[in-house]
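input
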Amino acid sequence: MKYMMFVCSDTEPETDESRVPDIDVWVAENDANGRRVTGNVLAPPSAATTVRVRGGEVLLSDGPFAETKEVIVGFDILECADLDEAIAVARAHPMAYTGRLEIRPYADR
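output
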């Protein structure tokens, strides 16, 4: 089953950085075992463009849609047997310590 894992910043990160896993190790391990399909870091929110169509008119806004202190800073597409496995992959990610990870299964369509 595929999962989208949003990697988000957090205003309350882990304060003991010695406990934070190495991202290069996490990527290498999950790429090697096929649980990570792809992923990347995103440009900062200031580089975002929000697109809406209202009344047939395209409305563009600079920056992210939401006004929040926490922002999406990256993503990973995971291939896992179930949610429990996806959670195990996420809990080993460095941003589980210094940020937040949101896991969502792909919708059945």
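quick obs: The chain has a mean pLDDT of 91.
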